[in-house]
Write a structure and sequence with these properties.
- About 40% of the residues lie in helices and about 20% in strands.
- It is built from 15 helices and 20 strands.
- The strands form 5 sheets. Strands 14-15-16-13-12-17-18 form a 7-stranded mixed beta sheet, with helices on both faces.
- β5 and β6 (about 135-140) form a beta hairpin.
- α2 (about 65-80) packs antiparallel against α4 (about 95-120), α2 packs antiparallel against α5 and α3 (about 80-95) crosses α4 (about 95-120).
């Protein structure tokens, strides 16, 4: 298929060229160049800021019903164009086409839920203490223009979370998607434009991440920063946002544990684990990584997990039947090699995979490692790739303590048939999202966010809308 011409979007117009030149976008399945995008410089960023200011004045004064009407028209277009957009996602991100299509369709559901919540977002009355005060109302008002930064692993879903919440609340947005996957977000922006979103309400810029974030965060026009990405970058943006007293939401990295209790079905859990671990080639922030399995089930679980991983069909996401695509870039393959080598040097046992696949593109084998010591890198740092770690345990409280030992706290999972044990696990696991007997912790109606070093605030659900509002108290006297 034809990859679209890449452009910036500022004040309702598409910008095809800038004085700062262009940068390439690569197809991770073969390393070829898909296209080039224009790099936003200071003139484009200033134009986007001015547009967002004007757009906010227009959009915040648009009725919630009218905002809902335009937003849901955009999601109608998103669903109509989902097959074409899904192919773009696969071309520039690499995931299998079925995963891409599901991502686009789910993104429409996410935006629809937030738009509906925005239509009925109300305040509350507070009874006055004195007779001449006629009313006292606590209102939720839009926070202001938003600067949103999104990564490459879910190039439609993650922008959708931010745009859905911000636009439903009445905010204008400048979004900077990842430079690896610009066309996916560009097509999302296009459906809003085609649905009749006023100029300036939604702007998209691309370029050098540090330069863009520094410029936007420092601007007096921006009221809120929303970021999804790595913990180190999230810390930097948090410091900058705090310096300028900007509202800040961050969904950061994870290192999700999975506790498989003695009463679980090891083969059934292993089957679920294969699908969850290697979805998106493991490039998922909530991906299960550390599998802590009761010693009585360990051998059976390990054998089933390894067999499932080795049976996966790896290849270009556009090929029929492919279950795992490439990593997004060559640097990710090099990181997988380094993590595996470090674990083996520390005494771990390689159960399967562990090597790049000898073919064009950025492919790495589905990899499972047993007994990686706690001090090795892959036990401490989020691999963000197709690597799973297996370890046995004897005592459940010890397993929970091991699960909670890292500074991450995004997602955690556990499998048990015991209701008392399930309650104990749900209370004991320190994570923003806990899945018991399944890996499905993300739905349009539910908050998505982490504890500790995994984030600040939530996206999705009602919480994802409230994050783009401020509280205003209004008291009226006679």
């Amino acid at each position: 298929m034809t990859y679209p011409d890449l452009k910036l979007h500022i004040d309702g117009a598409w910008v095809a060229a800038t004085a700062c030149g262009q940068l390439p976008v690569f197809n991770p399945a073969d390393g070829s160049v898909l296209g080039h995008f224009p790099v936003a410089g200071e003139p484009e960023l200033q134009a986007a800021l001015a547009a967002a200011r004007r757009g906010f004045l227009t959009w915040s004064n648009t009725s919630p019903y009218e905002r809902w009407r335009i937003i849901t028209r955009a999601t109608e277009l998103l669903r109509e164009r989902a097959p074409a957009i899904a192919k773009i996602v696969t071309l520039e991100q690499g995931k299998p086409l079925a995963e891409s299509l599901r991502e686009v369709q789910l993104s429409a559901d996410i935006i629809d839920f937030l738009a509906e919540e925005g239509r009925r977002l109300g305040g509350r009355g507070v009874p006055p203490r004195v007779a001449n005060v006629l009313s006292q109302t606590v209102l939720r008002v839009p926070v202001g223009p938003v600067a949103a930064f999104t990564p490459w692993n879910f190039p439609v879903n993650l922008p959708a979370r931010k745009l859905g919440g911000a636009l439903a609340a009445g905010c204008s947005v400048i979004i900077k998607p990842a430079e690896e996957t610009p066309a996916s977000c560009m097509e999302l922006v296009r459906v809003f434009q085609d649905a009749g979103l006023p100029p300036g309400v939604l702007n998209m810029v691309l370029g050098h991440p540090a330069e863009i974030s520094d410029h936007l965060i420092a601007s007096t026009e921006i009221a809120k920063i929303s970021f999804t990405g790595s913990t180190p970058v999230g810390r930097v943006l948090a410091e900058k946002s705090a310096h300028y007293l900007k509202r800040y939401t961050a969904e950061l990295g994870g290192h999700a544990p999975v506790i498989v209790c003695a009463d679980a079905d090891p083969v059934a859990v292993a089957k679920l684990a294969v699908a969850a671990k290697f979805r998106g080639a493991g490039q998922v922030c909530a991906s299960p990584i550390r599998f802590l399995v009761h010693h009585s089930l360990f051998a059976e679980f390990r054998d089933a997990f390894v067999a499932g991983a080795q049976a996966l069909k790896v290849g270009s996401g556009l090929e029929p039947g492919v279950q795992m695509g490439p990593l997004v870039a060559q640097r990710r393959v090099l990181e997988m090699e380094a993590l595996v080598a470090d674990a083996l040097e520390c005494g771990a046992k390689l159960l399967c995979g562990g090597q790049r696949i000898d073919r064009p593109g950025y492919f790495f084998e589905p990899t499972l490692i047993e007994g990686a010591p706690l001090m090795c890198r892959v036990q401490q740092q989020e691999p963000f790739g197709p690597i799973g770690l297996l370890d046995p345990f004897d005592d459940l409280d010890d397993a929970i303590a091991r699960a909670n030992a890292l500074p991450y706290g995004l997602a955690a999972y556990a499998f048990t048939r015991d209701l008392v044990g399930a309650d104990w696990l749900s209370r004991g696991l320190h994570a923003g999202m806990v899945g018991i007997n399944h890996f499905g912790v993300s739905q349009p109606e539910t908050p998505f966010g982490g504890l500790k070093d995994s984030g600040f605030g939530s996206e999705g659900g009602l919480e994802g809308l409230l994050a783009y509002t401020e509280v205003k108290f209004v008291s009226v006297a006679a």
